[in-house]
Design goal:
alpha/beta; single chain; two-stranded parallel ribbon; 3 helices
Amino acid sequence: MFDKITENDIKKMKEEIAHRKLVVRKEALEAVKEARAHGDLSENFEYHAAKKDKNLNESRIRYLEGMIKTAQIITEDSKEDEIGLYNTVDLYFEDDDEIETYKLVTTVRGNSMKGLISSESPLGRAVMGHKVGDRVFVKISDKAGYYVVVKRLDNTKDDGSDRLRSY
């Protein structure tokens, strides 16, 4: 399955890659070089920590480059009265008798702990294209699911504040 992302996501990823290659990589290499100068590498905590930081940076670069290479580009267009990408919604969960607020984002920005749900998640996929007042079935599996009611739709846009997922 390909991650579905927008052109803006790709732009943010390319900016992060450039920063990591030009700034973070240079700092990490310098930290390794400096720690290596402290002597015995087998018991040199600073050296091992610097190497770990350097490797994490290189891993993040590879991850972002892989995401760009394999992602499916989607648009963020939606009708004013329909739930679309980057819109914020209040959903009434019938089983819990609670209203929760979520913003629908691309897969690389999802963070359910911060109310950012992927448009590819079961909940995100179910509510996309629906309107205020719609009762929507969210299918979890062939045997399980639940209903939500769309209570409010705010046509928020991508303002760049939603961070890219770490990994």
